[in-house]
Design a protein that fits this description.
Strands 1-2-3-4-5-6-7-8 form an eight-stranded parallel sheet. The chain has 412 residues and is an alpha/beta fold. Helices cover 50% and strands 9% of the residues. The chain is globular and about 70 Å long. The chain has one domain: Metal-dependent hydrolases (TIM Barrel). One of its GO terms (molecular function) is hydrolase activity.
Length: 412
């Protein structure tokens, strides 16, 4: 923004107020910094053609190129700097210096980190490593499907070593899984490093979860199917709807008991998602069934943002995260999404996140573009006398920091 801001107090709050990043992922280790195509910073597309070819022709990429050129000091005439120029420059930088530059420009003080992203164990940095770039302590968001898969693998390995004795009675493996999964979630809930839980059921079987009747239902045959697949492939992937729904139901129950928010991936994602089942509207029955559990709808639920806004307006236990669309969506699209968020959502129930992952630039772009979009949308409304500048500043302070600090009990 080269022109003088019309509402200086609002502009200052939007661009400089400290932020809590309420949903992000680990960065790549230095030794793995070139393991993935950098185009992933501006696109969720999969495959070389869509990601490394098509993604660079999006408005999101054109905009990110200019913003990163300014960040890296690649000249005043940013229009002469290409995406490849940006890549070559950042590839030559010392890795920790690169991370410091990006976080220094992001204004993030605390990160809530989902460390269950595929590939983190092989390529990602640990939770505490990230503390060097932020003022506060990085907290963990526990991805519950991954915890369930770890427990299954532990049980299956024990059973294979014991020649299948857990399957001698129909309920043996099931009872062990139920007890261990509940125990694992409770351990996480009392861990001071854990801020909340997260479900990726949207990816696995869709958001149309059925949360009734799970204590009485028997799952041993379904577990046995997962067991046989593990014997054949060596991998455990929880992608069976009754089992996935059970994992969500138990999570919602324990989260209510320990007052931990549960984040749900909704809407925007890669091509592994069934988009028809990615609308948060599918969660309505679960929201009603667990009124004491806090639901956080991630990623603006894009393109189902209005459905998400409706849920925040009518259910006191629903909050909306407006993240990931920065920087994957164009500037016009981002402003439209913020407007849709504000159509119905109470402004004390919206929170920002970067969905930063792998590359430090994803944190920087996620912060800068969200701040710019908030300012532009709210300044329009102040200009139309629909709210005061002081009210608009309050909205920004809540969205960037205060609401997340309260919801995740970060000041306690």
């Amino acid at each position: 923004m080269s022109e003088e801001p019309r509402h200086l107090a609002l502009y200052t709050a939007a661009l400089t107020h400290p932020a809590i990043d309420n949903h992000a992922h680990p960065l790549l280790r230095s030794s793995a910094r070139f393991a993935l195509p950098f185009e992933g910073v501006i696109s969720e597309a999969g495959g070389d053609v869509a990601l490394k070819g098509d993604a660079r022709y999006t408005l999101a990429c054109f905009r990110a190129t200019r913003q990163l050129a300014r960040l890296f000091g690649l000249g005043e005439e940013e229009e002469d700097v290409s995406w490849e120029d940006v890549k070559r420059h950042r590839d030559r930088m010392d890795y920790e210096e690169l991370c410091g530059v990006c976080f220094g420009g992001a204004g993030v003080e605390v990160v809530l980190m989902d460390d269950g992203l595929g590939g983190v164990e092989e390529m990602g940095e640990g939770l505490r490593w990230h503390d060097r770039f932020v003022k506060g302590r990085t907290r963990r968001i526990v991805r519950v499907e991954v915890e369930a898969e770890k427990i299954m693998k532990e049980l299956f390995d024990l059973d294979i070593a014991a020649d299948g004795e857990h399957w001698e009675t129909a309920g043996g493996m099931e009872e062990a899984f139920r007890a261990l999964f509940r125990g694992r979630l409770k351990e996480c809930a009392v861990d001071p490093d854990v801020a909340g839980f997260k479900s990726i059921v949207c990816y696995r079987t869709g958001l149309d979860v059925q949360v009734a009747g799970h204590p009485e239902r028997r799952y041993w045959l379904l577990l046995y199917e997962v067991y046989k697949t593990y014997q054949e492939s060596g991998t455990v992937r929880l992608a069976n709807k009754p089992l996935n729904d059970y994992v969500v139901a138990v999570t919602l129950e324990i989260a209510a008991e320990y007052k931990k928010p549960v984040q749900f991936h909704t809407g925007l994602g890669d091509n592994d998602i069934n988009l028809m089942k990615a609308s948060p509207a599918h969660l309505q029955n679960a929201i009603k069934a667990f009124p004491s559990t806090t639901f956080v709808l991630l990623h603006s639920s894009y393109p189902y943002t209005r459905e998400a806004g409706y849920l925040t307006a009518v259910y006191p236990n629903v909050y909306l995260d407006f993240g990931e669309v920065f920087p994957c969506v164009s500037g016009d699209g981002q402003r439209s999404i913020i407007r849709q968020v504000l159509e119905l959502s109470p402004t004390n129930k919206i929170m920002w996140s970067s969905d930063g992952h792998w590359w430090p630039e994803s944190y920087y772009l996620g912060s800068l573009q969200a701040r710019e979009a908030l300012y532009e949308v709210l300044s329009e409304q102040v200009g139309r006398n629909e709210l005061t500048e002081r009210q608009a500043v309050g909205i920004i302070e809540n969205a960037l920091y205060n609401t997340a600090a309260r919801l995740y009990a970060l000041n306690g």
